[in-house]
Specification:
Layout (H helix, E strand, L loop, with lengths): L1 H39 L1 H19 L8 E3 L9 E5 L10 E5 L15 E8 L4 E5 L2 E4 L2 E5 L17 E2 L4 E5 L16 E2 L3 E7 L2
Antiparallel strand pairs: 1-2, 2-11, 3-4, 3-11, 4-9, 5-6, 5-8, 6-7, 9-10
Helix pairs in contact: 1-2
Amino acid sequence: MPGGRQNGGDRQPRDADRSHSIAQEKGETVTRDFFQHARRRWYLYLVLLAIWTLAYVRLFIDTTPRLPILFNVTPSLPYTVAVVDYRANGIRRGDYVVYAFEGAADRIFPGLHHQPFFKIVRGVAGDKVTVRDRHVFVNGEEVGFAKTHTNVKHLRLDPIAEMVIPPSYFYVQGTSPDSFDSRYSINGLVRADAVLGVVIPIF
């Protein structure tokens, strides 16, 4: 009987070792099969990696371009080529600026987030914004008419709320009637911290 107990005790470690060996072999087989599949379908994994990388960059890294020379191809401002001074400070009314978009519209159009916008500063801290029949004024001077709907998706547009511009914010305007600027609530005022630099038009 003592010998039988001894043999049974020996079998348990051997069975455990055998189970561990089988599990290890299965794990190695799965790993080997995965890498073989990856080699055959490497391009699919490359696409997935690119998608994950772009998503990470978009979410966690500021991708706003900072080029010394900018080209404008829209009717928002009356110039085609401009130089940007990224070290400028003391922004004043009438300055051309480039800023990283942070308005509420980026919840509807995610591609707008932190994209560079080029506008003219029409209102600074302390200036009064008023609205009459969708016509928007800064200190009594009209700075735009707020359309009722977007051209894309035909979404409703509301004019900016009447207010006194708080410190560290600017009211910005494009020169085109169709400009997407501070006249709309989903664009709104621009934080001073979002301004990247002052734009100096060349032609």
